[in-house]
Design brief:
The protein is α/β, with parallel strands linked by helices. Helices cover 24% and strands 20% of the residues. A hairpin with a 7-residue loop joins strand 8 and strand 9.
Length: 250
């Protein structure tokens, strides 16, 4: 149902993996109506060209191991602009609620009495493998997929994941933000019983003109990533579906 932006409202817009054609119609409409757009480095940045000429564009994107805007400052910006009666869009890549801190922003705004609306986006966890012709599920191969973040290494005090248990799920494993610690992650999955020969793939810069992908196995995917100097954003897929590219198309 079409819904226009309301003054004093914050709208969390998931922008999709990067290609502006994958931005939803509702997300584009929000960009076109916004008084303020607080956006990240990733996602459909070119869609900002659809914003009103007088709209305020605020870049709060994080550069890996570089400059970033603290989340507390982003929350404060959302609340301050909304309290001024402006129509505020928070534009992020993928989906705001999939490793996007959209939940935190929603909670902070709600606690401040700011109305919040969510426009879901196409999550890169599914879209980027699909664009590389990797289905995260396949009737004859797997009955599910598991999406996890690899932004901290196994064994780190900040990690909440049991990687060895994940090795036993018999699902496709989709790893986001895992390039840096892929050697340690692969080692833990192997220690958990996942076979060395398990197909694996890594897809970098998904949905953009620079998209590239490499295939291997659990035993060598980390080495392949290092050989090709893969940098974020990249998604790792581990499971039988990552080997489908070897099969002839029927």
């Amino acid at each position: 149902m079409q819904q226009d932006l309301t003054p004093g409202e914050v709208v969390l817009v998931g922008g999709g993996p990067g290609d502006p054609d994958l931005l939803t119609v509702a997300g584009l409409r929000a960009i076109q109506q916004a008084d303020v757009i607080i956006h990240d480095r990733l996602g459909p940045v070119s869609a900002l060209g659809e914003a009103r000429p007088e709209a305020e564009l605020i870049n709060v994107g994080k550069v890996p191991r570089g400059d970033f805007t603290p989340q507390e400052e982003i929350n404060a910006l959302l609340i301050e602009r909304a309290r001024r009666g402006l129509r505020v869009v928070r534009l992020k890549g993928g989906d705001n609620f999939v490793f996007g801190r959209g939940g935190e922003e929603w909670q902070e705004c709600a606690a401040a009495g700011i109305p919040v609306r969510v426009i879901p986006g196409v999550t890169s966890a599914v879209a980027v493998p699909a664009l590389a012709r990797i289905p995260v599920t396949h009737r004859s191969l797997t009955q599910g997929f598991t999406v996890v973040s690899g932004h901290v290494p196994p064994g780190d005090d900040r990690s909440q994941l049991d990687w060895r248990a994940l090795a036993q799920t018999h699902t496709t494993l989709v790893l986001l933000m895992a390039v840096k610690y892929l050697p340690e992650i692969a080692q833990e999955l192997r220690a958990g019983g996942l076979a060395d020969a398990t197909p694996a793939a890594i897809v970098a810069d998904g949905s953009t003109a620079e998209q590239a992908s490499w295939h291997g196995t659990l035993a060598d995917i980390a080495e392949i990533a290092q050989q090709h100097q893969v940098r974020p954003p990249a998604i790792v897929v581990i499971g039988d579906v990552a080997g489908l590219w070897l099969l002839p198309a029927s």
